[in-house]
Amino acid sequence: MAEAAARRRGRGGGGAARRAERSAVRIETAKYIERNIPNFEVLTEEALDIIEANAETVLEEIGVNFVDNPKALERWREAGADVDGERVRLPKGLARKLCATAPKEFTQHARNPEKSVVIGGRNLVLAPVYGPPFVRDAEGGRRYATMEDFSKFVKLGYMSKWLHHSGGTVCEPTDVPVNKRHLDMLHAHMTLSDKPFMGSVTDPSRARDSVEMCEVLFGKEFVQDNTVMTSLININSPMTFDDVMMGALEVYAASNQGCIISPFIVGGAMAPVSVAGTLTQVLAEVMAGIAYSQLIRHGAPVIFGAFVSSIDMNSGAPTFGTPEASMVTYGAGQLARRLGLPFRSAGSFCGSKLPDAQAAYETANSLNMGLLAGVNFMLHSCGWLEGGLVADFEKFVMDADQLGVLHGLAKGVPVDEESQAMDAIREVGPGGHYLGCAHTQANFKSAFWKSELLDYKPFETWEEEGGRDTRMLASERVEFLLANYQQPTLDPAIAEALLAYVADKKASMPDAFM
Amino acid sequence: MAEAAARRRGRGGGGAARRAERSAVRIETAKYIERNIPNFEVLTEEALDIIEANAETVLEEIGVNFVDNPKALERWREAGADVDGERVRLPKGLARKLCATAPKEFTQHARNPEKSVVIGGRNLVLAPVYGPPFVRDAEGGRRYATMEDFSKFVKLGYMSKWLHHSGGTVCEPTDVPVNKRHLDMLHAHMTLSDKPFMGSVTDPSRARDSVEMCEVLFGKEFVQDNTVMTSLININSPMTFDDVMMGALEVYAASNQGCIISPFIVGGAMAPVSVAGTLTQVLAEVMAGIAYSQLIRHGAPVIFGAFVSSIDMNSGAPTFGTPEASMVTYGAGQLARRLGLPFRSAGSFCGSKLPDAQAAYETANSLNMGLLAGVNFMLHSCGWLEGGLVADFEKFVMDADQLGVLHGLAKGVPVDEESQAMDAIREVGPGGHYLGCAHTQANFKSAFWKSELLDYKPFETWEEEGGRDTRMLASERVEFLLANYQQPTLDPAIAEALLAYVADKKASMPDAFM
C-alpha cells in the first residue's frame, strides 16, 4: 500500500508538492511519560494486608508448578523451598525476600540514546500491540499477518510521537518459518526503528539469538553492562511456569536483560471470579516468578506484570474495558508499588472485530485506567483488536493518537503565576472573550493537546469532504505515514553485520512451521 | 420507526412470538450510584488555596455583571455588594458566606418514589443529553429534531437500566412553537416516564409553568415541601448573568426547586487557556451564582456546575474528551467538595459527527473522568454527538450501555471472605481452571458487568451474522426497545388534568417561533 501510494504521488505531483507533503511529517518522539498526577488507589491498607497474607498462604500451602524444568526445581530446593515433584511450595516470606533484590527501576537503552527509557518510578513507557496472528485494514480485511505487515507496523511505531517503544511481536509474520521469524522480527526493529524493543521468548535458543543480535547492534561490552531488551514472560495461570518461558527468562535474567513476569488471566477461567481472589493469585504468581528470576541473577531487571481480562459468562469470550478488569489493575498497581517493582498492565484492549465505537470505548476505558493505575510499562498500547487476535492498521494510528491524551493528563495542573492567569481575567472582564488576549497569545500553542487524526471541522465542511468516519481518516493516515517513512540511519558496518548474522543463523537450521 | 416495527411484528408473528420478545425486555432501573471508590484529586491543598484566594480577588476586584435585572442589583446591594451599573463586586468572603446556606445534598423526588434520587454526597445521578436542535440515526441521517423524536428519547431513557433521570430538553422539538414546547416536553417526561426530570429555563414564565405542571402531577402541597425538579441555569462566561436565566433561577429557588448553576466554558474563548485560570473563573462564577440563589431563598437546593470543553486553536471548534477538560473537571470537583456542594460535570461529550470510534474515545474519556472526579449529577451522560448539536439515537443506547461500566467501577473491591476466594484457589490448584468450581458457580452471575449491546461472539459467528459494527447493533437495539416500550401507569385523573393544563396554556397565547 505504501509503495502504491508513493507511486501515485510520484506520477501525479511535482517534486515541490512531494516536498511540501513530506515536510508536514515530523518524526518526533515524546519523552516517556513522567507522571505529575497521583495514582488512583481503590484498596485500603487493610485490604492490601489481607491479600498479601493470602498470597503467602497460597505459595506455602498450595505452591506453584515448574514444569519440565529439573534445574529450576534444584534451584528452588537450594533456596529453601519445599519441592514435591514439580510442585514448589515457598515458606512464608521467602518469595518476598528474593523479590527484594530486583531493582525498583531500570534503564532500557535504545540504539538512539535519546530514546532510551527508564522503566519504573512515576514513569510510563508505551509499547505497541504484541502477538496477533492476524492483521486487518479497511482495504484488505482480516488476513494472516506477514513479515511485510510486521515491517509496516514497526514503521508506524517509529513515526508515532507518543509511542516510546518499538515493542516485540507486533504481529506474527506467519510467512516466515516459526524457528526463523524471530531473526527477521528483531532485524526489523533494529533497522527500521531506533526505539527500544523486545526479545524473543518462544524458545531459550531464540532468546540467546536475541542477545547475540543485540551484541552486534550495541557492541558486546555494552550489552554485558546494560539492559537493551525487555521481554515478555507469561505465566500459565493458575500457577504454572512452563519450561519454554522459564528457559527464556533464564537466558535474559542471566544476561541482565529485562523481563516482564506476567500472569495471563481471563477472570473466571484462569483465576477466581472475584477481584480480591484474582489479585491474590496474581500476587502469588508474580512473586514466585520474580523470586525465580532473582535466583538466576540477583538484581536482574524485572517488571510485575498483570494481563487481566474478564469473561462473558454466556460465551466464554474474554471481555475488555470492563469494570472488573479495571479494579484488578488498580489493585495490582498498589501491590506492585508495595513490592517496590515496576508495573506492567493495561493496553488498547478490546473485544470488537472492527475499529468501531465498541473498540474505542473498551480501549479508552483501558488506557485511562492504565495511566491512573500507575502502570510503568504498557504493552499493547495501540493496535489491538478482536481480543488480541488481530493487529489493526487503522486502530494502530487511532490508538497512537489517543496516547497523546495520556501524555496530557500526566502533566497535572501547574499553578504558577503564569498558569493562574489573573492578568488575563482582569484584561478580559465580564462579557469579553479570551481569544485575542495577551495570555492566550503567549500560551495557546502548548495549552491544549492536539489530535493529529480526529475531525473537528464544521459539519458542512466535513460533509463536503465525504463525511468520513474515524476509520477512513485513519486509513488515509496509515497510507500517508507509510508513504513518508524515512529509515533512521545506522552505521553501515553494523547493518551489514546484522544481515550476515541473520543469514548465517537461517542457513544453520531447516525451516520449521510448528 | 417504533410504529413501523410494531406493525411488522403484528403482521409477521403470532401472539406467542410477540410475548416471548416482550418478556425479554425487563424494565429495570438501577439505583443511583453510591460510590465505594475514592475521588481522584489532582490539585494539592496549596494549589486549591491559591485558586480560592484568586477567585475571591476576581469577585472583589473585577466582579460580575447581572444584566437587565434591577431587582437582582437591589438584592446584591442589600447583601453588602458594591454595585456599579450592572457590575456587582463582592467583598472577600461574602459569596462564600452566602453559599454556606445551600444544602450539601438534596432529594429530587420522582413520581415513582423508587426512582427518587439523592443528589450530593458520594452519589452519582445520570441524566441524558440536553439541548441539541438536531437528531441523527443511521436510517434517517441528520435532521431537525421534532416532538416525535423527543418522545422516543424519553422512552429510551425510561427503558435504560443505568439512567436514573429522564433529563430535560433531550432534543429541541423544533416543530412546536418556541413558547409552547416546554409544555409538550414536560408532559412527555411526566407521562412517558416515571423518572425524575428537569424544568424549563428559557423564560421565567416557563419556569412558573413547570412548577404548576408539577403541582398537577405531584399535588400542590407536595411541591411546596419537596424538590421535584432540577433545572439547568447556565452562566454566560466570562462572569455574566443574564436576566432570562436569572429569572428562571429566581422562580425555582423561590419554590425550593433544584438548580444547577453552571458556567458554560470553551477554554481559551470564555476562560483563560490554562487549567488553573479556568478553575479560578469557574469558582468565582459559581460562587456568585449560588450566592445569588441563596439571596432568593436560604437553603434553596443548588449544584456547583462546570461545563468545560477545550478548543481546537486552528478552527476554533470546541473539543471533547481532552486532557485539559479532564483536569478542569477533577479540580472543579475538589473545589465543589471544599464548598460542601453537589457537583455537576462531564457527560457523553464528543466532537465527532458520527457515533464512530472518535465519538467513543472522547465519550469514554469524559465518562471515566466524570466518575472519578466525584461528579454527583451528570447531565449529557448519553446520546450527545457533534459538540452537542445532535442527539443521536444509536449513540444514546451505546452510551447508556457504557453507563453500566460506571456502576461496576463504583462498587469498588469487596475483600470479605467470599471475595477472597481462598477455597476456590485451593480447589483448582496449579494448572486447573475455575469455570466449574463451586465459587464460580455461586458468584458468576453477578461477578461481571454485562453489556446488553456489545459483540463478544466468535469471529465466524459474527461474520455469518453480517459483520455488524456497533452502530448497526445499536440501531437494532433502538428499534427493539421502542417496539417493546410500555407506558408506566399514571392516575387517569392526573393524566387528564395534565392534558387540560397543557391545552389551556397553549390556547392562552399565540404561537411564537423566535
Automatic annotation (TrEMBL), chains A, B:
What InterPro entries does this protein map onto? MttB-like_sf, MTTB_MeTrfase
Q: Where is this region: Disordered?
A: 1-20
What's one GO BP annotation on this UniProt entry? methylation
Q: Keyword check for Manganese, yes or no.
A: no
Q: Which domain of life is it from?
A: Bacteria
| An example Gene Ontology molecular-function term | methyltransferase activity
Q: What is this protein called?
A: Methyltransferase
User: Source species, please?
Assistant: Ruegeria spongiae
